[in-house]
User: Fold these one by one.
Assistant:
Number 1:
Amino acid sequence: MKNYILAIDQGTTSTRAIVFDAKGLSVGHDQVALQQYFPDDGWVEHDAEEIWQATLSTCRGALSNSHIDATQIAGIGISNQRETTIIWDRKTGKPMHKAIVWQDRRTADACQQFIADGLEPMVRAKTGLLLDPYFSATKIAWLLDNIHGARVKAEAGELAFGTVDSFLIWRLTAGKSHFTDATNASRTLLFNIHTQQWDAELLETFNIPIALLPEVKDCSDDFGLTQPSHFDAPIPIYGVAGDQQAATFGQSCFKPGMVKSTYGTGCFILMNTGAQVVDSANRLLSTVAYRLGGKVTYGLEGSIFVAGAAVQWLRDTVRLISDHSEAERLAMTVPDNGGVYLVPAFTGLGAPYWDPLARGAILGLTRDSGVAHIVRAALEAVCYQTKDLMDAMVADGASKPATLRVDGGMVTNDWLVQFLADILDVAVERTQLHEISALGVAYLAGLRAGVFASLTDIENLWQRQGCFAAKMDAQTRAHLYAGWCEAVQRITTVEQ
Ligand code: ADP
């Protein structure tokens, strides 16, 4: 019986592969760390060849660790770091350059120029995104302009562009498939999320030949068969989604108004907005949450740049704690934050403030303030920022969700999850599984393969590991949040 799914989770810092069974449970996995390259100030690159080798070896490792062979796999799902840009030669399959990673800021000036030229409203209306180096279009143009001869080759149809999903599909199928899915396409700045097509005006604006681009498919679709020599038997690729969308699917956020939030190094919040594109007045992103059977479900997305990274900073840079779990223990040793706020604007402030020049601060210190207050303030900050984003979503017309589904490394911290529920005044549900993005694409692939019959089938598999109800009184909540807003006001460089 083919009733297992092999899920690939190609992330920013590692490549993982997991075999899931028909109940959505992991039966074996493998993982390899990914080398980061920082060739210049603000530049971040990955070696696409290394990504491919890691994908192949972790897939083989996961199969062998789970004692499952390829003939038992009904399909492959791919979840990937989004926006990261790769260009390769169609004939040789060789990347023309290192991959430019989503974090890379080398095209900041180009984006500023487009904004100065008044293009942002058009780009925003079509793509739901902002004109920011984060997204792929200006990275593609940079590669075409900086690799010798690339533009001519691209015009002649000799080169292919892809986000990491496309590149992996190409390699897995030995060059037979040049596909992406609607969620990954929606992060390129070239894809019109209303028409679900590559957009001629956007291609012209960013000077990108259409010959480079992959065909865009549903998230649960036929992306081709793996080359027989990769595994013991050819396996169909049936599910693809960008990591945050995959997590939304893994959290079974299938109804409009449902929200998930992933707390890792940074934090990404995504709300299902159904068939409707919500045009945010607070510069949140409108995006494709998933597309099934040609039908698009849209999402509203906000991100916190520094979430777990603040805890890493406490441990590795200022050394106030020796391990992550100490953060929780220390936070509980004080009855409250003692008026101390930590605004972790290490790289500026994101939504809804959008202040790239702001920098972090610790405010409200007195002679009584100790390490525990500062550590507690770092954890509290993640929760206040979640409230900032959720309030922005509500201001954009979404209704306040009844619950928030959370996952990621930080949510092992019970204290943090309770404080989150208290500050949001929303019940917070924590899932059992850490690998929620991988599970999301396993579901997408399994839907196509018939391992899962329907979304209801998948919803029934969703399990929570805990539910944290809000316990804080309204007055305390308002007082604490007012303190946060005041702290943010003190460090912003733009008028809010
Ligand atoms: P990523 O996928 O972004 O690498 P993970 O989901 O693995 O991140 O989560 C790791 C992050 O969670 C780290 O930044 C770490 O500081 C944070 N973290 C892990 N355990 C705890 C804890 N008990 N309390 C607070 N933060 C934690």
Number 2:
Amino acid sequence: MILVTGGAGFIGSNFVLDWCAQHNESVINLDALTYAGNLENLATLDGNPAHVFVRGDIGDFGLVARLLAEHKPRAVINFAAESHVDRSIHGPEDFIQTNIVGTFRLLEAVRAYFGGLNETDKAAFRFLHVSTDEVYGSLAKDDPAFTETNRYEPNSPYSASKAASDHLVRAYHHTYGLPVLTTNCSNNYGPYHFPEKLIPLCIHNALAGKPLPIYGDGQQIRDWLYVKDHCSAIRRVLEAGRLGEVYNVGGWNEKANLDVVHTLCAILDELSPRADGKSYREQITFVTDRPGHDRRYAIDATKLERELGWKPAETFETGIRKTVRWYLDNQDWVKNVTSGAYRDWLGKHYGECA
Ligand code: NAD
Ligand code: DAU
């Protein structure tokens, strides 16, 4: 059995769903169910004994220690985090608590558990930490893409907290011999993406007749990867990654934000045209830029491709079309996650543009 943390969030729930569809190995899913965690993502696993959900905090040493002792997982995969850059700018505290203190306590519980395993179980055990390309900072237009040896230069409270957690994971390998693996991935998109992030927010706002808010000049570049491809990379690193190593994960899909939103508008114009016959592009609105906004991310995933033979299955064009289709087909999911506290966030962050 494996223990997944944060498995009710966007990437974690996609990972758990894919895992249960492809493996005969059970999953314990530990998630605090913050605003970003949603058991509806996992509804298809209701009644499936291979999925055991536990509501709790990765920072709760006693709970994690109990789960490890009871279920004896052969791997821990750590997705749990506060993940939204804009929220980290409004209030960094939760990011420090979960991403740094929480990861530290999780590592402590895993270290104690690992110390008590027999030699065979020790040899098989893995702690896989899911991290981000944002720890490497921002690239200039012509800089080469980030490799695993790039310096850490985080610029937001979110990326700084993820960088700190990556350093702790590294230290637990070098100091205590914990068999760790770290993945640093680019921007994901796909089903169950919470509509505070650019792609699902713009799909949701477009259909609701609201502004599509573009920060600054919209020429910031992100490197997009379909979420299922991120999940397949994590499975491959878990299976064959070298202990203590870091693997960058990315889809070679650099796009300027404005181009991404133009693509979304074009697909929506085709699949769900506006009643007035005009393009959704009319709803694009330029708003104040994000403070400290990183200009460009780009991932060089050569190491993962060469050493472990991983390749993404989707191009941006195929993945984005599937994603728009998923949101059109799952309007109830969107309705449920955009009620209540979500509206408070929009009002606080976008003001009258919400
Ligand atoms: P998300 O915000 O959608 O989900 C995070 C999940 O973690 C939620 O289910 C939440 O309830 C849970 N959680 C939060 N605090 C917790 C705590 N203290 N204890 C237990 N559970 C807790 O995030 P995501 O986009 O799915 O990202 C998952 C991981 O992947 C994060 O570590 C993130 O840094 C990393 N990552 C994300 C992206 C991306 O594009 N979304 C890209 C690269 C890496
Ligand atoms: O690069 C990986 C990271 O990608 C992950 O580590 C983070 O968890 C994940 O949230 C994501 O971070 P970004 O800040 O890149 O994602 P977001 O969707 O918030 O923004 C994408 C780009 O779009 C970014 O340049 C900011 C811009 N943007 C975003 C929003 C929400 C807008 O222009 N308007 C918006 O309303």
